[in-house]
Amino acid sequence: MSMTAILIAGTMSIGPVDAPSLAPFRLEYRPIVIFADPDDPRLDQQLDMLEAAEPELIDRDNIVVLDTSPGSALRDRFSPGEFTVILVGLDGGEKFRSDGVVQPGDLNALIDTMPMRRNELRQRD
After folding, report:
1. 40-61 residue pLDDT tens
2. Does an H or E element contain 87, and which?
3. Residue 67, SS3 per DSSP
4. Which of 10, 28, 42, 79 is most enclosed, with most CB atoms within 10 A?
């Protein structure tokens, strides 16, 4: 079954949506967009890893966007490969891309170097 879904950190609920734009998340969330065939074992592996890192995702204002729809608007925008993970920043720009499963700690380390994240951390202190 092909779909595009948003998995919200904190609930890890899945809600199918039709060809979403990432615009509603701009300046509020850092989307982790996963493009995959629903039967690809890397998809389950990636989702399991992200679910295990849920507290870190919440802390960094991440949401996970899963796209298994061959003709989606997100695929038109990002031109992913067969399996692709993309980190999108608060500004809506692509910050990282991988054609393999990504360790959540690697995404967290990258996010922690971003100027907006550093500002968030300074404001907390």
Report:
1. 999 999 999 998 998 999 899 9
2. strand 84-88
3. strand
4. 42
